[in-house]
Amino acid sequence: MTNKETLQRHLLQLDNRGYKAYKDIQGNYDFSEFTLIIDYVQGDPFASPSKFRVIVPPNIAQLPRELFNSRSREIALRDYLTRQFDRAANSISSKRGTGKSGMIAVTGFGQEVLERTSAFIISSNTSNIEDLGGVELRFAVGLPAGGRSILGRQAAEMLCEDIPQIVSNSLKYANLNAAKCRRHVETVEDADWLRQQLADNGLVAFVADGAILPRRSGVDNRPLLNNAVAFLSPPSLKVEFNCPNRGLISGMGIPAGITLIVGGGYHGKSTLLRAIELGVYNRIPGDGREFVVANPAAVKIRAEDGRSVAGVDISPFINHLPQGIDTVQFYTENASGSTSQAANIIEALEVGRRKKEEGRGKKEEGRGKKEEAQSFVLETQLVAISEGDLVPVLLVDEDTAATNFMIRDRRMQELIAKDKEPITPFIDKVKQLYVDYGVSTILVMGGSGDYFDVADTVISMDNFQAYNVTEKAKEIAKNYSISRAAEGGETFGEITQRVPIPASLDPSRGRRDVRVKVRDVDELAFGTEDIDLGAVEQIVDSGQLRAIAAAMVYAKQQYMDGKRTLSEIIDLVMADIEAQGMDILSPFPEGDFAMFRRFELAAAINRLRSLSVVAK
What pLDDT shows up at residue 227? Predict the structure, then answer.
């Protein structure tokens, strides 16, 4: 390992040489208080920037062990350090030449606190509470160039002056705001703790009193500052928890089952659902939704016209299509609103559900009463979640749903006979999903009171305030009978597992090298295919999509053998990441991966237009 002075002299000697001569600086350098590692050097000033790392040992960083003595705290601390490095880099680095010259940057981030590969805590792995932690921080550097010639003096300033200053300002605990750092860590730990309490309390979501749910705009996810109404739970739905750090917290608990969110337009229905759907992630202090948490298997379901569907059994919802089109193994390159919404539900159940025979079979043994059956399903759902077998919670907003998939009212039933209508509407399947599989649903519904008949809880939003109107809704349903005929049989139907055909996932574009590219959070180029993920609303960070792309390649290389089901493949990939970290997805250290859920990985695979499967 050479030192800082050697690197500085080398950079000065490279001044005015061709840009590719920068390759000579790749390696490790001792900067006394930290080690600088240059893993990859870009070959062109307009190419992807160079990949750098710094390793600050515990005796220099001096991070208190109490800030990373649990997984929750460690992830929060890593996130905080990444943000501090970004802030310090933005205040120091400046434009130095053409292309990306002069850039010093970490991965992008928003309001969510995600596990990232940008920062890692270095621990001595002892139980001594006095032990301190160091840090490894990964970042990108645009090495300076004039045209395609090296600007050696500017590079020497960047690497030998700017980077040490950034490291000192952001990765030494003595130079951090200790109170803000602690608040960041404790906020995330409390949110994780709250999320873990949901199942044991029969809940699928929790919305804290005082939460600020509205955002500044559709493209600005920060909290609304002016005229924002703080959330307040209805008394009948209020629950309290004693968090590890902040102590007593109260708010609205949404119970398992079927929950409707109703109310007039622009009164906060979709805003509440959006906060819940993102409640699978933690947020930074000051976001306003720090203590809005959801079941970790909550999945947003919507219609998605035009998506491809590969061999999905949508027969629980759609049967007897014209021209004899098969819905047990349904294929299409251009799904309609109803077929896409049906596929989205079945795909979520396929990779996250609890097997029917584990719940329903036992339920039928001597349990004739509907109330007992539903109670048992809830019990099995809670056991499943505690054991890590995630039972999905479906989140649906009528604004993004297919109308003909959601409801078929009495008048339409009279006009169009059931044998002429292939779609069994969601209203006739939502309760079966809960009874048969323990799958709860939270549904925004402002246009159809027919759902009052199947709802367990009805929440009305009025000027962003919530009211429990369950009893009133049930009274209305009793007084104004709709007399519609239930459709779709007595049970939900089977969930079929699918086996991906390995050759149908080709990331190499027919060449020897892998070609994947991510565009923001909604598009992924995989080999010759472009995967549109614009409707997968719970991908919130481009780092998640980069990690998903790498996980798809990893899954293809390691586990797709034409025998394993998609669910089994995803189980294996997620287990490997849990055991060895996201670095397992790449041959060299990546600083811009963010952790994703199994549901979003499955969503990307399922939207690959070349995907071909066989039924298990």
Answer: 85
Six-digit token string for 573: 């990939």
CA distance to 59, 68, 168, per residue, from 130 (Å): 12, 12, 22
Q: What integer pLDDT is reported at residue 382 of this predicted model? A: 38
Closest CA to 532 of 610, 611, 604, 612: 604
End-to-end CA distance of the chain: 54
Alpha-helical segments (H) within 367-454:
370-386, 403-406, 410-415, 430-437
Widest CA span in the chain: 88
Q: How far is CA 495 from CA 105, 427, 491, in A?
A: 45, 19, 12
0.90 exceeded by pTM:
yes
Q: Where are the beta strands (DSSP E) in 479-567?
A: 498-500, 516-519, 523-526, 529-532
- Please report which helix (H) or strand (E) contains residue 191, including its range: helix 178-197
Residue with tokens 């306003």: 288
Mean pLDDT of 83-96: 89
459: nearest Cα among 435, 475, 476, 443: 443
Query: Both tokens of residue 303?
Result: 């219609």
Q: Determine the Cα–Cα distance for residues 16 and 279; give it in Å rounded to an integer.
A: 52
Short-list 200, 190, 261, 188, CA closest to 231: 261
Return the ∠ at Cα 516 (arms to 512 and 518), rounded to 5°. Answer: 170
Q: Which residues pair with 261 in a beta bridge?
A: 444, 459
Three-state SS for 192-211 is HHHHHHCHHHCEEEEEECCC
- d(C-alpha 192, C-alpha 494), whole Å: 33
Which single residue is written with the structure tokens 């995907």?
A: 611
What distance in Å separates the CA atoms of residue 558 and residue 204, rounded to the nearest whole number?
Answer: 34
Q: Compute CA distances 132 → 57, 63, 67, 165, 245, whole Å.
A: 9, 5, 10, 22, 21
Per-residue DSSP letters for 278-317? GGGSEE-TTSS-TTEEE-TTEEEE---TT--EEEE--TTT
> Which pLDDT score, from 0 to 100, does residue 127 have?
62
Q: Which of the two residues, 370 and 257, has the higher pLDDT score?
A: 257
Letter string b/e over residues 199-211, b meaning 16 or more CB atoms within 10 A of that residue's CB: beebbbbbbbeeb
Residues 223 and 288: their CA atoms lie apart, in Å, by 6
pLDDT tens-digit readout, 239-277: 999 999 999 999 999 999 999 999 999 999 999 999 999
Euclidean distance between CA atoms 85 and 165, whole angstroms: 10
- DSSP three-state, residue 2: strand
